[in-house]
Amino acid sequence: MKKLLYILCLFVLAISACNKDFVNLQPTTIISGTAAYSTPSAVYALMASFYSRIGSNFEDQTYSEGFPPNYTGTWTDESIGTFPWANVSNTVSGGFGWWDYGLMKDLNDFIAKIPSANIGQDLRTRYLAEAKFLRAYMYFGMAKRYGGVPLITKVLVPGVDNLQVPRSTEQQVYDFVGSQLDTVINVLNPAYGDGSDKFRATKYTAYALKCRAMLYAASEAEYGSVQLNGLVGIPASAARDYWQKAHDAGLAIIQSGAFGLYQANADPATNFQQLFNGTDATSNKEILFAKAYALPNNAYSLDFFNEPQSFKVDWGNYTNPTVELVEQFEYTDGSPGKLKVNDANGKPIQYKNPADLFAGKDPRFFASILYPNAEWHANGDPKGGYIELRRGIVVGTDTLINEDLSKTYGTGANAITFNGKDGPTVSNESTKTGFFMKKFLTESSTFVPNLNKSAATGIIFRYGEVLLNFAEASIELGNTGDALTAINQIRSRAGIKQLGSVTRDQVRHERTVEMAFENQRYWDLRRWHIADKVFNNTPLHALFPYLVWKDNTSPANMSYIFRKVQIPNRPTRTFIPSTYYFSIGTSGADSYLTQNPGY
Predict the structure, then answer these.
(1) How many angstroms separate the Cα of 233 from the Cα of each of 145, 147, 166, 597?
(2) What is the pLDDT of residue 28?
(3) Helix 504-514 × helix 463-476 angle, to 10°
(4) DSSP annotation of 329
(5) pLDDT number for residue 66
(6) How far apart are CA 246 and CA 546, in angstroms?
(7) 84 and 574 in contact (C-beta within 8 Å)?
(8) Inter-residue contact 151 to 218 (CB < 8 Å)
(9) Bridge-based pairing state of the strands 559-566 and 541-548
(10) 392 - beta bridge partners?
């Protein structure tokens, strides 16, 4: 029976002119399986369609394409979602599931048929390796969610094959991922020379996936527990081998010399900001693998959902960083990042400029988070190129607050709104924490953050993560020298004091700061099995600035104080230990599968 496969109608143009947008190509027509393998251009288009169908399920890219609840960071201690329906108490979300055996079936079919396709042997070998990479990526994505899953490596034929394939153990799935990547690493080219290197699997993309996947396997073996006869969990005895595999895969990338940390701008904050939204991915040596976007027809809406209050078009404000994350960013001298809100006697410190509270912070803070009085330019700068945040006004011993952003206090030239133009507020949809996410946002006074106007490259693997993975594997293996070297490279690029020695907690801390909002924290807390400790009826906190009123004085000459408070109208967060693995679907075709613990 012929199986219908998605194909691109404009594949000839794609081959000749659009290689750099390979992973963006969208399937628009359907032709039969026979025709799909009849010409080089048809096979090219079919392979492109697999990348496209995985689409946003390259879920480890630096942001979500979809609706705001799909931002994993808002389900951690990084941030909260502004809107009332974004309240999170139990930090388990079934919305992050990935169970696409339809695509898996098509990849298996492609892997079976590509050896006899009507194309040259070099292309057959390359496309076979790419398909195996994508299949390994999918199995890794499922293993980190569910543990062991049915390991299906061929197209099952009704009446011939058993269609009720049982779950393999979690270790078997990770071992399959590792072995598949080993088979393609020496087949895939280090580079293709046609502009597609960053947007499809290469030798080093496969190394990067192996480095990450083996790190996750090692973490489960080291910190998890075996349940259901190994359907979830990996024996502790296997941990060291997985740590070593992650270390070696990272080392292969490092020693290749093909990649490096992005360092195009002398200012470390500007440099870090440009890494994500100011460079052409094809010339950015930090990017190993990415998803490309282009206006007008292949963009997304990150800016639309996250632009600060006075710069938004409609929604805006969604991702509100917490004080917990803000204080993870150290000061450049290496001292802890606790904000200096009160003096030694507990009295609020007054700041003439609210931004002065953050002076000396790790430059990555200024590139990642918008804070009171931060400079910002977007949407024509309708109310000035800065973030104005003020929760209320302190008059003597009274604190005056009004949720209406337009309401004023004082008279004449000294009148000023109770709130800043960007909040924060409790009852409406401005920021609830006193901060906005900056990382990935487009900063340009001419940029209008409408729906589907964001087009920055979606980074899936970057060299900074490779160094962090390598450092983590090294520290777990007892090789503190390698870990220290890798971490200090990260800190040097960031513009922060280097370490003289390093511990596991410092490696994890560096990962939290360097990769804030990059969809890593959610999975890190789970694989380290510390989510139930971090979230145990845990409150998260906001920072509220208040103007200290002085009669007969211009507000521009008044000072601000700050108060750290539990985020209003948000519940504490708890993680249930039995939910380190997602629920297995047990209805319909999957009803025969063994359910995970806790469901």
Answers:
(1) 12, 7, 17, 11
(2) 37
(3) 170
(4) S
(5) 66
(6) 48
(7) no
(8) no
(9) antiparallel
(10) 546
Residue 156 phi/psi, 5-degree rounding, is -80, 135
| Segment 327-365, tens digit of pLDDT | 999 999 999 999 999 999 999 999 999 999 999 999 999
The residue type at 569 = N
Q: Over the chain (599 residues), what is each successive 10-residue block's mean pLDDT?
A: 29 32 41 78 92 71 64 91 75 74 95 95 96 96 96 95 96 98 96 85 97 98 98 98 98 97 97 88 91 85 94 94 98 98 97 98 98 94 88 96 93 95 91 96 92 90 97 98 98 98 98 95 96 94 98 96 95 90 81 91
Q: How many angstroms separate the CA atoms of 477 and 133, rounded?
A: 27
Query: pTM for the full model?
Result: 0.93
Q: What SS3 class is residue 385?
A: coil
Q: Position of tokens 């450092």?
A: 471
Alpha-carbon distances, residue 420 vs 389, 435, 466, 529 (angstroms): 4, 12, 40, 40
299-311 pLDDT tens trace: 889 999 999 999 9
pLDDT value, residue 6: 29
- Residue 330 has a pLDDT of 98
- Give the number of other CB atoms < 10 A from CB of residue 554: 11
Tokens, residue 251: 């080392």
Nearest to 426 by CA among 559, 320, 537, 304: 320
- Residue showing tokens 């779950």: 167
SS3 content of the chain, % helix, strand, coil (to 5): 40, 15, 45
Among 132, 462, 96, 466, smallest CA distance to 291 is for 462
Instruction: Of 142, 132, 143, give the one whose Cα is nearest residue 171.
Output: 143
Whole-angstrom Cα distance, residue 500 to residue 348? 34
C-alpha–C-alpha distance, residues 272 and 265, integer Å: 9
What dihedral angle (degrees, nearest 10) is formed by the CA atoms of 323, 329, 333, 336?
50
Say if strands 79-81 and 319-321 run parallel, antiparallel, or are unpaired: antiparallel
Between strands 398-400 and 408-409, the pairing is unpaired
SS3 at position 555: helix
User: Contact at 8 Å (CB) between 372 and 434?
Assistant: yes
- Could you tell me which residues come within 8 angstroms of residue 472 by beta carbon, excluding any fewer than 6 positions away? 215, 246, 483, 504, 507, 508, 511
How large a percentage of the chain has pLDDT more than 70? Answer: 90
User: What does DSSP say about strands 436-437 and 369-370: parallel, antiparallel, or unpaired?
Assistant: antiparallel
pLDDT given at position 299: 87
Please state, in angstroms and rounded to a whole number, the distance separating the CA atoms of residues 582 and 145.
6
Alpha helices by DSSP H, listed for 196-348, are 203-223, 239-256, 268-277, 302-306, 323-326
Q: Which of 239, 240, 259, 238 is nearest to 250 (CA)?
A: 259
- Tokens (6 digits) for 534: 């971090």
